[in-house]
Amino acid sequence: MLEDLSLTNMMLAPIKQLNPDQFLPYVKENLEIIFIPGIFETIYKEKWQLYINFFKLQVNPYGDDATPKIDGLSIEAFIIEQLKS
């Protein structure tokens, strides 16, 4: 089976363009956001490191909004929600 690389690129582009400065009001120390190829969990937290499972990104290439989402939220909104909790 061949993989459609355009779908992967649609998922990677927003991650590459993620601006970490927008999360500064929600952290007290340096923050590391790391996308990993996880298996089950959506996130793993360890002090000021936030590991996000790349395979939990959902994208609809056929709809009007091709923005990747995690649990129905944009990547930025998801990260902010995790930092608040």
Based on the model shown, name its key terms:
85 residues; alpha+beta; 3-stranded mixed sheet; two-stranded antiparallel ribbon; 2 helices; 21% strand
Topology at a glance:
Layout: H1 5-16, E1 32-36, E2 43-46, E3 49-53, E4 69-70, E5 73-74, H2 75-84
Parallel strand pairs: 1-3
Antiparallel strand pairs: 2-3, 4-5
Task: Give a quick summary of the entry.
This protein is of the alpha+beta class. Helices cover 26% and strands 21% of the residues.
Percentage of residues assigned to helices: 25-40%
What is the number of independent domains? 1
Total count of helical runs of at least 4 residues:
2
Count of individual beta strands: 5
The major sheet is characterized as:
3 strands, mixed
Structural class: alpha+beta
Order of neighbouring strands in the sheet with most strands: 1-3-2
Task: Name the overall outline.
Answer: globular
* Beta fraction: 15-25%
Mean pLDDT: 86
What letter string, H or E per element, gives the SSE order? HEEEEEH
Tell me the radius of gyration.
13 Å
The low-pLDDT segments are: none
Distance between the termini: 40 Å
Structural summary, described in words:
- This protein is α+β, with helices and mostly antiparallel strands and 85 residues long.
- The chain has one domain.
- The chain is built from 2 helices and 5 strands; from the N terminus they run αβββββα.
- Strands 1-3-2 form a 3-stranded mixed sheet, with no helix packed on it. Strands 4-5 form a two-stranded antiparallel sheet.
- The longest helix is centred in the first third of the chain and has 12 residues, at 5-16.
- The protein is globular, with a radius of gyration of 13 Å.
- The relative contact order is 0.20.
